[in-house]
Amino acid sequence: MGYGSIVKVPFGPQHPALKEPENFTFEIDGDIIVNVKPRIGYNHRGIEKAMEARTYIQNIYLAERICGICSDAHTTCYCQAIEELLNVEVPSRAKYIRTVIAELERIHSHSLWVGIAAHEIGFDTLFMHLWRDRETVMDILEFVSGNRVHYAMNTIGGVRRDITDEMIPKINSGLNFLEKKIKHYINTISNEPTILKRTVNVGVLKPKDAVELCAVGPTLRASGVKNDVRKDDPYAAYDEVPFNVITNDGCDVFARIIVRCEEMLESIRIIRYALEHMPSGMTRVRVPLVVPPGESVSRVEAPRGELIHYAKSNGTSKPERYKVRSPTLANIPALCKMLMGQHVADIPIVLAGIDPCFACMDRVAIIDLKTGEKKVFNFEVFRRHIQKCYRKH
Amino acid sequence: MLQETLTLLFQLLIFPGAAFLILLAFISEWVDRKVVARIQSRFGPLYTGPSGVLQPIADFLKLLSKEDITPDGVEKPIFTISPIIYFSLSLTALFLIPILSETALVNFEGDLIFLIFISTLITITVFLAGYSSASSFSIIGSIRSALQMLGYEIPLSLAFIGPALAAGTLSLSGIVKWQISHGIWTVFLQPLGFGVILICFLAELEFVPFDIPEAETEIVAGWRTEFSGRKLALLKLGRDLELLLASALTTSLYLGGAQPVSFVPPALTFLIKIFFVVFLFSLFRALFARFRIDQMISGMWKHLIPLAILQILLIILNVGR
Q1: Residue at B321 is within a domain
Q2: Do B209 and A192 touch (CB under 8 A)?
């Protein structure tokens, strides 16, 4: 840590601030970061390949398991892509139910994140209290879908469960409690000097940089750019529900916290509206198991930002190619920009600021450790390469 | 002669000596954990003993039985000896504190200076322990703890001197005696000094908002990262003793120390007071986010040192003597 000389500090893949394995190499001058080299790809799970080997129905459950937090966003996105291929129109009641679940998920994801952010700056009390109150939304989700994490609500052509009128008062009472609590937390966060000291003007991302580096989601909106798939390219029932796109001109970590907190309040309003104006009718339509050939792209505003799914069908019951672009991947270049010029002590909170979900993002990359070059293999060459490696050791 | 020796040995080793102090240290850790847990709306230790009061002891025993790993590349002699020094420094300092009566087990004119010296030495041991570990997290942690010392050492010493000036003695026992004979606690005369000493001890104990040297999300366990097994057990015990030392010192300097109240023995009032101070520490620990090291040092120099000096000036000007 000598002053005047540049020191390389590795951060991860095993580090308490990172909940998932990922490596960042920081070049540090004194206490200031002058360069960041991210190395992603530690957590490749082969989900895209696995999807090609399963039927469209099985893939709903696989898509759900891409992420443990935005599980509903992934299935919505998947089902939309396949529905487009099938040319099926989802019943409007199903669209409203999808909206309700998506917003409930946004509340749970954002409150989880605000808790993590508090933990990263050492404010464990806020972390514990937030997570305690987060249980309310988890209970609502369990009450509606039967599950706390993987709701399994979406299916191709609609939703699997209905939200009946008897359920609505219970959901509403939970929402009222949450609204009161979230307002209390916004008040606490904006008035607690130690939080302000650690978050204001930390991890600044100027609006111009945010757009240039293709940041998405709350990270982009906290830089004052009004961009939301729900508004720009409405899916589910978002074209019928009135809501505001929350932005903040702070451009720093504090702005990201406030944007997420206010989005929770906005989500509560959306859910209330959707529950009140829910049309009657069917919740799903039956669809054929075989999908006609074609390609489709589907976009969803996941809690972390814009999520893109691409599906290619060859006319069988299994997709030929499936591709997931999770929001974390889009935020990595912006993250590197934010980290520049920061103090070492601010690394965890800035890193957490984009709400990273590395496991959703990682794809395999084969790197020769000796030469450092990246290679692309097809399966046969890759198999031979692995065998050669094993023989050597 | 023999009986005197035996009594002294009993006092040093068992009551109110080493064994009693260590037990007290474990209990103060339990109080701290329980208070923080309740504030954070958790339960804290629950199962070992009534309300989990034996949990710190169980943790200690378990750590003793764990494998003791010495990583490659550490400075072996310092790495091995620093946990022992860390633990024994706090224990030594505790002998100077009057617990059973207004006179401490060991006391001499000027022991306050010795206590200041020990509290500095503890930080230097921490620095050495981290620096000898040869791990980047430990080194950053130990540098931070040394930097942090630059921030809190001067106000802490000034807050030690305040009561001494008022009582006109440099002996801790003398300060306690002065408070008892005048029938007033120093905290009412020097509230500024009390605030300063609490904040400085938070920094010395590495409690939030000053847990910078062991910031979990930044540098794992800071200077303690590479220690395991018996060494970690000793470090943890040392830390508990440090907590006890900090609260006992605050009690003796500002809250009247071991003071007899009608039929209540002085030891009991002392215990109640130190647990109250531990409660204060835990309360602060749960209420803030962590500062950054530069914010902490500039805050200490800009706000805390002027306050401490103001307190000394007030005493010299005969306000609150």
Answers
A1: no
A2: no
pLDDT score of A1: 45
Give me the number of domains chain B comprises.
1
CA distance A79 to A60: 7
B-interface mutation test, from A124, A127, A201, most B Cβ less than 10 A away: A124
For chain B, the distance separating the N- and C-terminal CA atoms, rounded to the nearest angstrom, is: 43
Residue by residue, DSSP assigns A16-43 as TT-SS--EEEEEEETTEEEEEEEE--TT
Q: Does A195 touch chain B (CB under 8 A)?
A: yes
CB B98 within 8 A of CB B107: yes
All structural domains of chain A with their residue ranges: 47-326
**Residue B93 structural domain:** 18-316
Helices (H), B40-99: 55-64, 76-95
Say if A1 is an interface residue toward chain B (CB within 8 Å): yes
Strand segments, DSSP code E, in A16-174 are 23-29, 32-39, 154-155, 158-159
Of the candidates A17, A31, A128, which has its C-beta nearest B41's C-beta? A128
Q: Most distant CA pair in chain B: distance in Å?
A: 59
Q: What are the pLDDT digits (tens) for B222-263?
A: 788 888 888 899 989 998 999 999 999 898 888 887 777 778
Please list the pLDDT of chain A residue by residue as tens digits (393 residues): 445 577 788 887 877 777 778 888 888 887 788 888 888 777 788 888 888 888 988 989 888 888 888 888 999 999 999 998 888 889 999 999 999 999 999 999 999 999 988 888 888 899 999 999 999 999 999 999 888 888 888 888 888 888 888 889 999 999 999 999 999 999 989 988 888 888 888 888 888 888 888 888 898 899 888 888 888 888 888 888 888 888 888 888 999 999 999 999 999 999 999 998 888 888 888 888 888 898 999 999 989 888 899 999 888 888 888 888 888 888 888 888 888 888 888 888 888 888 888 777 777 767 777 777 777 777 788 788 778 878 776
Q: Rounded CA gap, A224 and B178, in Å?
A: 63
Q: Specify the CATH architecture of the domain A47-326.
A: Orthogonal Bundle (1.10)
Give the dihedral of Cα atoms A361, A363, A368, A373; nearest 10 deg: -80
- Tell whether A346 is within 8 A of chain B (Cβ): yes
Residue B4 lies in a domain: no
Instruction: Please say whether the beta carbons of B148 and B291 come within 8 A.
Output: no
Phi-psi region at A4: left, alpha or beta (left = phi > 0; alpha = psi -120 to 50): left
Sorted by sequence, the CB contacts under 8 Å of residue A35 that are 6+ apart come out as: A26, A27, A340
CA distance A89 to A85: 11
pTM over 0.90: no
Whole-angstrom Cα distance, residue A171 to residue A218? 26
**Residue B268 maps to a domain:** yes
Gap between the Cα atoms of A268 and A264, Å rounded: 6
Amino acid at B130: G
In a domain, B267, yes or no: yes
CA distance B45 to B31: 10
Q: What are phi and psi of A306, to 5 degrees?
A: -70, 125
Asked if the Cβ–Cβ distance from B292 to A346 is below 8 Å, we say yes
